[in-house]
Amino acid sequence: MTTYNAPVEEMMFLFNNLKDNKNYNEIEKFKEINSDLVKDILDQAAKINQEIVHPLAKIGDENPCIYENGIVRSPPGYKEAYTKFINDGWTSLSCDPKYGGQGMPKTVSTFFEEMLSSASLSFKLYSELSIGAYNCILHHADEKIKNKFLPKIVEGKWSGTMCLTESQCGTDLGLIKTKATKQEDGSFLLTGQKIFITSGDHDLTENIIHLVLAKIPGGPSGTKGISLFLVPKFNVNDDSTIGSRNGVNTLSIESKMGIKGSPTCVLNFDNAKGFLIGEENKGLSSMFTMMNLERIIVGIQGLGIAETAYQNSLAYAKERKQGKSNNNKDNQTDFIIKHADIRRSLLNMKSIIEGQRSLAFWLSQQVDVSLNHPEKKIRESADELVSLMTPVIKSFFTDMGTEITNEAIQVFGGYGYTKDQGIEQLYRDNRITPIYEGTNSVQAIDLVFRKVLNNKILSKFIKLIKDEIKDDNNKIELKRFSKILEQNLFLLLEFTKWLEDKNKNNKDDVSSACNDFLKVLGYISLGYSWFKTTKISLEKIKENKEFYEEKINTAKYFFDKIFPRIESHYQSAKSGSYSIMNAKFN
Ligand SMILES: Cc1cc2nc3c(=O)[nH]c(=O)nc-3n(C[C@H](O)[C@H](O)[C@H](O)COP(=O)(O)OP(=O)(O)OC[C@H]3O[C@@H](n4cnc5c(N)ncnc54)[C@H](O)[C@@H]3O)c2cc1C
Fold first, then answer.
1. Which of 164, 182, 391, 526 could pair covalently with 443 via S-S, beta carbons 3.0-4.6 A apart?
2. Among 442, 450, 580, which residue has the most ligand 1 atoms within 8 Å of its CB, making it the best to mutate?
3. Pocket mutation for ligand 1, best pick of 136, 169, 171, 197 (most atoms within 8 Å of C-beta)
4. CB within 8 Å of 419: residues ≥ 6 apart
């Protein structure tokens, strides 16, 4: 079984040193959230994740959810852990105090999301969609629905789902067939089938609140005719007590490669009573409130699982003896951590993970500003950065999660491939993250066509990086980093220009380059994060020499060994799409 120790020191380093956003500091309600409070929350979060949640990862993998006589049962121990989880208030961490929440900023809740992903993704998924449902209802439902449903969701007594996918429609939501017919009292009756619904049914909560995309007959075709509905598993009385069973039933649950402790359900809606959320035919944009925040959280899942993979690889490399390293003096067998290639693997993981954590922290600040800053202009400006970086965090972090969990298997050798050590489970559990919440390729297409081409958001982000570099041009130790960052920024700009040119006459060239572009922007963003970390580390090195020297060394690894990937992605993209589009695949 794997072990997990929450990286509280790393998180506090970010909170104490990289809260660099002036706008964030202007948010009145977050002014009292100081370092002591955050450390206290993270210590408590570490405790529950290490002691209660992490052991459930293996239990859920070996005892997957069961579907019996129309009922879905969670793995052993999940119910008790979930009860403690909600009693300790973890589902309410970032929610509005008006509905019983604790009002913590994203900067804090993102750390918690990471810990929970590291501890057990399957367990996390029971409450994760509830936060998505909470956000969607909060932003788009009327007061009556908010008051009726939100307090129970915040408390964790009811959970949420997100019902988009149908057998004929995954990426292309315009193909949705589920139908919603309006009733005289203003409610709707929904009929249709949804598949692959995470936490669609289970025994951890009293009620399940489904947010369902469906079409109202007579509406526009395609995505323009989609509306969003709230459909409870049990109908809810006006005083928020539970009433009769609604027409939603579980037909089956999936047998899967990973996250076996999380039920993935086929749901049948048979004249199920639902309530419109937002306007008719505008459901997709309401659902995007849920999906966009959820996409960032899925990125964090990749980061969290990668952290567990790294911690266990490091521990194993310190206890496994094989061969003799180049500097072996006593002719005894060495621990494998002495071998240069194992050290390279470990630094690969470490430099990517720490860079990602820092980037996620920066993005969390932007999310907080976009939702809470008193000035509209500043909120909108932060929102643009969030919109640019959402597909990057979702895809880049989860792809890196795949790379890192794969690399962890390699560090463990044969013991990584067999089940005892739990390493192969990390790979399997992570493997869904590049697929759900919009596949990574589709995220890359969204990034390039909607957010980069004909849009100025990227130049805004590049300006932030340039300002950061300019700020330190005179510091000699930083020069080696700023030079590499600048050179690669130049490649990013060239790549962007190439996309703009190709978009005028060869869209296949652009489409086949999207994944490469997303990776390039991902590596640059991590470079931006590492640059800020290096700057702080150089300033503070005397305070904690060992900690900051290690940071600077890891930054060197990132700039020397990871940044060259940018050039190869650019070269590959620039070769165009001729061979791709001419393949006959006979
Ligand atoms: C474990 C699990 C949990 C899930 N949880 C939920 C949930 O809670 N709620 C929910 O609604 N759904 C859920 N899903 C569904 C998930 O979101 C979809 O599987 C995903 O969006 C992809 O859809 P699809 O499987 O139909 O693949 P498809 O859309 O058929 O895609 C197949 C391939 O084609 C590519 N592709 C598709 N369109 C394009 C395009 N325009 N350009 C280029 N490439 C394209 C994709 O990238 C992919 O590689 C879950 C799925 C799983 C397996």
1. 391
2. 442
3. 171
4. 425
Number of domains in the chain: 1
In total, the chain counts a number of residues equal to 586
197 lines ligand 1 (CB under 6 A): yes
For this structure, is 437 an active site residue? yes
Coil, helix or strand at residue 270: strand
Tokens of 158: 């009811």
Taking the model in full, what pTM does it have? 0.97
In-domain check, residue 454: yes
HSE (side-chain half, CA atoms, 13 Å) at 536: 20
- The amino acid at residue 97 is P
For every one of its 586 residues, what pLDDT tens digit does the chain have, with 9 covering 90 and above? 999 999 999 999 999 999 867 899 899 999 999 999 999 999 999 999 999 999 999 999 999 999 998 899 999 999 999 999 999 999 999 999 999 999 999 999 999 999 999 999 999 999 999 999 999 999 999 999 999 999 999 999 999 999 999 999 999 999 999 999 999 999 999 999 999 999 999 999 999 999 999 999 999 999 999 999 999 999 999 999 999 999 999 999 999 999 999 999 999 999 999 999 999 999 998 888 778 889 999 999 999 999 999 999 999 999 999 999 888 888 899 999 999 999 999 999 999 999 999 999 999 999 999 999 999 999 999 999 999 999 999 999 999 999 999 999 999 999 999 999 999 999 999 999 999 999 999 999 999 999 999 778 999 999 999 999 987 756 888 999 999 999 999 999 999 999 999 999 999 999 999 999 999 999 999 999 999 999 999 999 999 999 999 999 999 999 999 999 999 999 999 999 999 999 999 9
Spatial separation of the C-alpha atoms in residues 177 and 188, rounded to whole Å: 15
Residue nearest to atom 7 of ligand 1 (CA): 197
Q: Is residue 50 part of a domain?
A: no
Phi, psi of 160 (to 5 degrees): -125, 160
CA distance 397 to 360: 10
Question: Distances in Å between the alpha carbon of 397 and those of 45, 133, 179, 582?
Answer: 22, 23, 36, 32
Ligand 1 centroid–CA 473 distance in Å is: 45
**464 part of a folded domain:** yes
End-to-end CA distance of the chain: 45
Q: Is 265 touching ligand 1 by the criterion CB < 6 Å?
A: no
Q: Is the CB of 196 under 6 A from ligand 1?
A: yes
Let me know if residue 556 belongs to a domain.
Answer: yes
| Spacing, Cα 169 to ligand 1 middle (Å) | 8
- 190: β partners: 180, 272
Q: Provide φ and ψ at 188, rounded to 5°.
A: -130, 155
Distance CA 496, CA 2 (A): 42
Protein residue with its CA nearest to atom 43 in ligand 1? 442
